[in-house]
C-alpha cells in the first residue's frame, strides 16, 4: 500500500525544496494509521460503494494541488452527496481517529489538500447545487461543489454576478476556506467581505450555521463573528458544506485597457496614484516584462514586452469613460504609453484570459521544470519599493521569475520556474521566496495575501501573528477539533 521511504524521498526531493520538512512529512505518511475493512464498509453504507475509493490513481489525484508540493495521497477518498452524508462520514472518522481532508477543485497553491498524515479525503464536488438565488436581496446559497464559473453562468440572465475571481475555476466553498480573492478584489473585496453565512460540519459530525440557520443579512451584531472564523481556516476547523454569498449587479458598461511603462516603479506608481485619486477601479493588474514575454508566446499576443498594467473599469457609459480618461492622464505623467482600449467582450475576454493563463505561460518558458508560486501583500504605499527590490533579487539569481499581481490591493505574485534536479536552483528559489516574505513582514504586510499558509508558509505564521496569536489559534482549533483530525499538518508547524 505504501511506497518505500527511499522512493518517497526521491519523489519529494523533486517537488519540495524544504527538505527538512519534506522528510518529516514523509515519516508521518509511513507511520500513518491503516484503515480497516469494517471502516471501509461503514463509509460505503453512508455514501455508496461507488463513492468510496482506495485506488492509487484516485488517492494520488486527491493528494496534490497546483503547487510545487509533492503528492501525499490519503488512504481513502469518499465523495458524499449531501451535508448529512458529510456529517455521518465525519462521525466515523472521529470515532476512529482518522484525519479528514476537505477537497474541492484542487486548485490551491500551498499544498492545503495533501494527505500528509494519511486519512480520508472528502471530495465535495458531487454537492453541486445552487440552492437559492435571491435576486432582490443580491445573495445566493450554494453547496460546496459549485464553482464560480458555474455560478456566473447560472446567474447570466438575472442581471447579477459574483465577481471574486482567483483565476482558476475554483469551488466557492474552497474559496471560502482559503479566503481567496483575485483580479476584482480592488473593487469588490475578497471572500472574507463577501460571505454572509456558512454551513459547517465539525470534526465530530455536528453541523453549525455560522450566522444562524437561514440567516442572510448584510450585517449582524449578534455574538462572535463565527463566519469569518471559518473563512481562511483552510479546512483545519471544519468542512464547509454550504455558503451564502453576496452578489452584485452586472455593470452597465465595461472598458479594459493595456498600458506599457519604462520601468516597474513607473507602473506601480501609476497604480498607487490612481487609488489615491479615489478612482473606482474594477481591476488593475501588473505584469513585468518577463511575464509579458511569456504571455505573448503562450497566448499568441503581440504586446510590448515591458512592465505593463491591465486595467478595467465598470460603471455607466459616461462614468467608465471619465475614469479611463483620468487614469490615462496619470499613466502619461508616469511615462506610460501604447494605450490599447477594448470595449468588445471578445477582445476583453482575450485580454483577461491571457492574464489568467499567466501561470501556464510561465511553466511553458522552461518545459519539464516546476514552478514555485508565492504571494505577499503590503500597504499600497510600500508596494513600489517591494516589487522593485524583489525584481532586483530575482534578476541576480539564475532562475526565471516573472512577477504578476493584483497591485490594486497591494498583492503580487512571483512565479519562480526552476529545475527540481538542480540543487543550486532549489536553494535559490527557497532563498528568494523566504526573503520576499520577510521583506513583506518588515513593511507591515503579510506573507500571503490570498494563497494561504498550507504547508509552504507555516514557518512565517508566528513571525506575522506573534507567539500569543498562534497559541490562541491553536486553542481555538483544540476547542473545535479536540482530536486534531481536521486537515492535520497544515498552517501550524506542529
From TrEMBL:
Keyword line: Acetylation, FAD, Flavoprotein, Mitochondrion, Oxidoreductase, Transit peptide
EC number(s) stated in the UniProt entry for this protein: 1.1.2.4
Enzyme class, spelled out: oxidoreductase
GO cellular component: mitochondrion
UniProt-listed InterPro entries: FAD-bd_oxidored_4_C (IPR004113), FAD-bd_PCMH (IPR016166), FAD-bd_PCMH-like_sf (IPR036318), FAD-bd_PCMH_sub2 (IPR016169), FAD-linked_Oxase-like_C (IPR016164), Oxid_FAD_bind_N (IPR006094), Vanillyl_alc_oxidase_C-sub2 (IPR016171)
CC cofactor: FAD
Biological process, per Gene Ontology: lactate catabolic process
Places the protein is found: Mitochondrion
Coiled-coil spans in chain: none
Keyword DNA damage belongs to the record: no
Catalytic reaction list: (R)-lactate + 2 Fe(III)-[cytochrome c] = 2 Fe(II)-[cytochrome c] + pyruvate + 2 H(+)
Boundaries of every FAD-binding PCMH-type domain copy: 70-250
Gene Ontology molecular function: D-lactate dehydrogenase (cytochrome) activity; D-lactate dehydrogenase (NAD+) activity; FAD binding
Family: Belongs to the FAD-binding oxidoreductase/transferase type 4 family.
Function: Involved in D-lactate, but not L-lactate catabolic process.
Subunit structure: Interacts with CSRP3.
Name assigned to this protein: Probable D-lactate dehydrogenase, mitochondrial
Organism: Lingula anatina
Amino acid at each position: 500500500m505504501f511506497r518505500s521511504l527511499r522512493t518517497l524521498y526521491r519523489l519529494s526531493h523533486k517537488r519540495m525544496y524544504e527538505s527538512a520538512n519534506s522528510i518529516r512529512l514523509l515519516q508521518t505518511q509511513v507511520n500513518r494509521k491503516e484503515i480497516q475493512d469494517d471502516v471501509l464498509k461503514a463509509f460505503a453504507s453512508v455514501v455508496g460503494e461507488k463513492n468510496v475509493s482506495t485506488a492509487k490513481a484516485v488517492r494520488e489525484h486527491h493528494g496534490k494541488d497546483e503547487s510545487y508540493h509533492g503528492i501525499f495521497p490519503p488512504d481513502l477518498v469518499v465523495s458524499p452527496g449531501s451535508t448529512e452524508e458529510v456529517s455521518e462520514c465525519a462521525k466515523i472518522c472521529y470515532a476512529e481517529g482518522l484525519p479528514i481532508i476537505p477537497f474541492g477543485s484542487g486548485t490551491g497553491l500551498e499544498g492545503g489538500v495533501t494527505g500528509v498524515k494519511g486519512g480520508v479525503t472528502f471530495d465535495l464536488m458531487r454537492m453541486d447545487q445552487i440552492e437559492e438565488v435571491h435576486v432582490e436581496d443580491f445573495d445566493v446559497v450554494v453547496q460546496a461543489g459549485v464553482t464560480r464559473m458555474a455560478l456566473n453562468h447560472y446567474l447570466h440572465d438575472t442581471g447579477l454576478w459574483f465577481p471574486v475571481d482567483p483565476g482558476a475555476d475554483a469551488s466557492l466553498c474552497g474559496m471560502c476556506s482559503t479566503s481567496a480573492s483575485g483580479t476584482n478584489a480592488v473593487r469588490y473585496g475578497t471572500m472574507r467581505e463577501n460571505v454572509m453565512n456558512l454551513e459547517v460540519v465539525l470534526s465530530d459530525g455536528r453541523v453549525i450555521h455560522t450566522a444562524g440557520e437561514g440567516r442572510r443579512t448584510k450585517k449582524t451584531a449578534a455574538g462572535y463573528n463565527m463566519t469569518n472564523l471559518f473563512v481562511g481556516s483552510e479546512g483545519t476547523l471544519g468542512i464547509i458544506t454550504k455558503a451564502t454569498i453576496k452578489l452584485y449587479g452586472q455593470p452597465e458598461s465595461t472598458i479594459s485597457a493595456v498600458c506599457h511603462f519604462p520601468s516597474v516603479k513607473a507602473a506601480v506608481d501609476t497604480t498607487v496614484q490612481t487609488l489615491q485619486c479615489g478612482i473606482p477601479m474594477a481591476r488593475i493588474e501588473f505584469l513585468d516584462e518577463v511575464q509579458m514575454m511569456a504571455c505573448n508566446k503562450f497566448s499568441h499576443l503581440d504586446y510590448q514586452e515591458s512592465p505593463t498594467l491591465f486595467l478595467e473599469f465598470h460603471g455607466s457609459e459616461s462614468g467608465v469613460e471619465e475614469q479611463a480618461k483620468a487614469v490615462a492622464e496619470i499613466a502619461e505623467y508616469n511615462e506610460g504609453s501604447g494605450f490599447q482600449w477594448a470595449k468588445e467582450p471578445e477582445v476583453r475576454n482575450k485580454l483577461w484570459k491571457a492574464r489568467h493563463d499567466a501561470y501556464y505561460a510561465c511553466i511553458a518558458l522552461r518545459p519539464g521544470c516546476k514552478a514555485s508560486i508565492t504571494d505577499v501583500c503590503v500597504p499600497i504605499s510600500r508596494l513600489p519599493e517591494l516589487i522593485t527590490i524583489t525584481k532586483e533579487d530575482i534578476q541576480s539569481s539564475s532562475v526565471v521569475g516573472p512577477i504578476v499581481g493584483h497591485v490594486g490591493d497591494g498583492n503580487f505574485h512571483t512565479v519562480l520556474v526552476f529545475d527540481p534536479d538542480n540543487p543550486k536552483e532549489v536553494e535559490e528559489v527557497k532563498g528568494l521566496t523566504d526573503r520576499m516574505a520577510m521583506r513583506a513582514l518588515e513593511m507591515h504586510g503579510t506573507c500571503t495575501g490570498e494563497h494561504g499558509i498550507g504547508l509552504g508558509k507555516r514557518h512565517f505564521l508566528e513571525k506575522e501573528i506573534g507567539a500569543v496569536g498562534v497559541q490562541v489559534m491553536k486553542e481555538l482549533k483544540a476547542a473545535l477539533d479536540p482530536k486534531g483530525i481536521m486537515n492535520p499538518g497544515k498552517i501550524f508547524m506542529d
